[in-house]
Amino acid sequence: MRAPPDTSSLVTDLPADIHIKFEDRPGYLFAEVSGPRDSREISTAYWLRIAAQCDARKAGKLMVVEKLGDFQGDRDMVDMVEAIIAMGLDRVKVAFVTCHVEEMARLEHGEILAIERGANGRVFESTALAERWLRHGGE
Fold it and tell me: Is residue 14 part of a domain?
């Protein structure tokens, strides 16, 4: 068994205008993130909270629905994937749903990077497709 990931250097404060809702659904944990903007710091902070909930609830499957506004700052998909893996989310089957369909190519690049690093995640444009994959897709 590997050691817990070191997340001590990651930003953990979530701005007051960013909200996360968690629900235990049959077979998986559901998390919805909403707010008027997104950034590297916001994404890192919400993923840390989600990882903590996965650990606390012993969730093996997770759906994240991101309903955030436009991204502020520079994007670094490799860095974000590495951070999410460092949080231990490579041990969870993750379905990520975005409201920004125009970002699918970038997100699919992140999906490929994560899979190459041993994670089990996919990106989706709809919660129905994401749920079908979580329940019936390959492990």
Answer: no
